[in-house]
Amino acid sequence: MIKSLKVLQNPLANSSYQLDILEHNPTHKHASFKEKVAGIGMLPLLAVGVEIFQVNMGKMCNQVCKHCHVDAGPDRKEVMTRDTMQLCLNVLANSPIKIVDLTGGAPELNPDFRWFVEQIKALGKHIIVRCNLTIILANKRFHDLPEFFKLHRIEVVSSLPSFTQDRTDKQRGDGVFEDSIKALQMLNAVGYGIADTGLTLNLVYNPAGAFLPPSQDALEKEYRFELMKKYNISFNKLFAITNMPISRYLDYLLTTGNYDKYMEKLIGAFNPAAVKNVMCRNTISVGWDGYLYDCDFNQMLDLKVTPATSQHLADFDLSALQNREIILKQHCYGCTAGAGSSCGGAVAD
Amino acid sequence: MADHYYNAEDLGKFGNIGEYQKEMADKFFSYYGEVFKDGALTAKEKSLIALAVAHAVQCPYCIDAYSSDAYEKGFSEAQMMEAVHVASAIKGGAVLVHGVQMMNKVKEISM
Ligand code: SF4
Ligand code: SF4
């Protein structure tokens, strides 16, 4: 079994070591992201509200994908407790935030996942679950997840880096493609991704290698055609996401000698138009232990939000967070390359 | 001048050719950009054609660029190799079919 960087005691499991490579390492010197943003007159970059409340329910996962920015895996034990979930619910009950985005790890592995979903739903919020697909097949107790998602009208977002087996398995592990296809068919069977059901199933593409995603529209067309032809699978939208040069993907880039070239690619593709729509501007990201971050990437780099008085759910202060200054580092180039990248795919209009 | 003719970094300097003749370079790059857009053929299909042609003209810069581009656009290793075989077959065939000229000539001058 492949292990997480943390369990392998790889120095890259340490966020300050990662930041050191990204920010200060003289052999890997690249143009500063902050200066680029200053150059287009957008520094400091400020949030424009909090519309999406993204909760990382823990680092435990049934997969160990090579590119994972969470360094998730079966050997990670950090999961959100019910007490911390209750703090999330307190915040949500007292705020106009309408969208809750549940991620991980595999959020479904959290023992209180279903309870949490029911409580959020009772508050009338829209829920997105980032489901890795294979979890549905991982154990009998997860086989009814499609029905559970349907019951709560959850929007499902799932990764499938290719419509071919070899590329998917290279990135996500042996057998992942086959199980993902079965899981997609199970989701389709209850109505997900099928026209007029109102049950949304979006797919995520991210490159299986040291390169940037091609055109989202072209990919979506191809996925639609191939998945229907070969497996009779349909879905709503495809989001093309850029891999972030942090955690396990950073490890991959460094060990294969691709790091500098990849950074140059990201920098060369810097798109000023993508800056104004980066997802941190309307999102708040909550860690498994209740701390607050600008996004899931800053969370993994342990960069807590700037307002010192509102860095944890217990002190959540919407007025301080909604126009906070975003913490920008070199990895942010991953959000602004080409058509841009976010949890909802390309961002440049 | 480097002591070898090809240098990987030079690919990144392609855009600089405008330094010596801007107008023609601008026209070339705008034409080039237009050619590779989605049209009657998709940008993806064009990438595979470019990969095959890159091998036929044996341009290391183009091979570098279109090996990445075709892979990024989703072609598999086997598809890319088959494209190279197409280039090879056409090139090989082009040599061999001239054998007919050779035969014609020999037949003309032999008894
Ligand atoms: S990328 Fe997602 S599915 Fe893969 S190991 Fe990370 S959290 Fe799990
Ligand atoms: S990495 Fe996070 S903080 Fe940086 S631009 Fe992207 S979403 Fe914003």
Task: Tell me about this structure.
The complex is a heterodimer of chains A (349) and B (111). Chain A is α/β, with parallel strands linked by helices and 349 residues long. Chain A has a single domain, classed as Aldolase class I (TIM Barrel, Alpha-Beta Barrel). Chain A has helices at 15-24, 33-39, 82-93, 113-122, 134-138, 145-151, 165-172, 176-189, 216-231, 247-255, 259-268, 272-275, 296-300, 318-321, 333-336, and strands spanning 52-56, 99-103, 126-130, 155-159, 201-205, 238-240, 283-286, 292-293. An 8-stranded mixed sheet of chain A has the order 6-5-4-3-2-1-7-8. In chain A, helix 9 (216-231) links the parallel strand 5 and strand 6. Chain B has 111 residues and is mainly alpha-helical. Chain B has one domain (14-109): AhpD-like, CATH 1.20.1290.10. The mean pLDDT of chain B is 95. Chain B: It holds the Pfam family CMD.
What is this entry, summarized?
Chain A is an alpha/beta fold and 349 residues long.
Keywords:
heterodimer; A: 349 residues; alpha/beta; TIM Barrel; eight-stranded mixed beta sheet; 36% helix; 10% strand; B: 111 residues; mainly alpha; AhpD-like; 66% helix; 0% strand; binds iron/sulfur cluster; CMD-like (chain B); Carboxymuconolactone decarboxylase family protein (chain B); AhpD-like (chain B)
